[in-house]
Write a structure and sequence with these properties.
The protein is α/β, with parallel strands linked by helices. It has one domain: TIM Barrel. Helices cover 30% and strands 16% of the residues. It is built from eleven helices and nine strands. An eight-stranded parallel β-barrel has the order 1-2-4-5-6-7-8-9, surrounded by four helices.
């Protein structure tokens, strides 16, 4: 659907807990735990989701993909090798075989200890999070999105999750807007910030009525230049400070020694949601800012 014919979805009239959280009227900074709280439990595990909720994180980001027999499981890599006691391609392995495996602690790897945690299903993860923490679902293979949507709808979890997908603002063509679930489940567009064109691109995606967007940037000034348009459309800005995100040097490693120079600078530029691998340190920093 082109930008000229799409009907804009009103973001200001939506009323539910997840939309209230993402609204810019909420002046707090949203914390997103990347692959849940994997610093305290195996990544993408039920224990990591519980840990994030107990820490007071608002969102967990989890990854999902299908086994060979069509069961959605929560795991990041295409293979089982890094995070489980097994090996091989997830999509070529049966659900029963995946369930027999044990998850490795933390971010996994050969040296990581095996735990009693198992690879959860998407359904189990959503139920674990329900009423405690919102979920950003990263569908590892786009063709499996209908399975993800069907699971969310079957569980009645539409107001507990946000679905993200890539868009190209300058194309003015957003196929996601024709999906039958669009408008009933929160959607977060993702795109790179074009130098000097952030505000213009925000205007181009207005038909999507996005409550939140995830972007990558090459100049912090570009983010600040979009603040007025973000305010007008009531869009919350999400930035990843993961070391692998490559948003200049605005990353978790530097933030540990210079939180104001990383997280503080992002907040000053108008960022209202930060995905991090250092959630405990980030929450401690946010608490210190509130008390100052």
């Amino acid at each position: 659907m082109s930008g000229s014919t799409a009907v804009a979805i009103s973001n200001s009239s939506r009323s539910s807990e997840i939309y209230d959280l993402m609204s810019r009227a909420n002046r707090g900074i949203i914390t997103i735990a990347h692959r849940a709280l994997w610093s305290a439990a195996p990544e993408n595990s039920l224990a990591a989701i519980r840990g994030a909720a107990e820490l007071g994180v608002e969102f967990v980001e989890i990854d999902t993909q299908a086994t060979s027999d069509g069961h959605l499981v929560v795991i990041h890599d295409k293979t089982l090798d890094r995070t489980t006691s097994g090996s091989g391609i997830v999509g070529a392995t049966s659900f029963s075989a995946v369930r027999e495996l044990r998850l490795r602690d933390g971010a996994g790897g050969d040296a990581a200890a095996l735990t009693d945690e198992r690879v959860p299903t998407l359904e189990e993860a959503l139920e674990e999070a329900r009423g405690r923490v919102f979920v950003n679902i990263d569908t590892k293979f786009p063709h499996e999105l209908p399975l993800v949507i069907a699971t969310v709808q079957r569980l009645g979890a539409e107001e507990h999750v946000i679905i993200k997908s890539d868009v190209v603002p300058e194309s003015r063509d957003f196929p996601v807007s024709t999906a039958d679930w669009f408008g009933s489940i929160p959607h977060m567009p993702m795109f790179p910030v074009r130098p000097g064109k952030f505000a213009a691109d925000l205007r181009l995606i207005e038909p999507l009525g996005a409550p939140m967007i995830e972007v990558k940037f090459t100049d912090l000034a570009d983010l600040a230049a979009g603040r007025e348009e973000l305010e007008r459309q009531n869009i919350r800005l999400w930035i990843n400070t993961l070391d692998v995100s490559h948003n200049l040097d605005f990353n978790d490693s530097r933030a540990i020694s210079d939180p104001e120079g990383v997280w503080g600078a992002l907040v000053e530029a108008g960022v209202g949601a930060i995905q991090t691998d250092t959630n405990i340190e980030f929450k401690r920093w946010l608490s210190g800012r509130k008390q100052a």
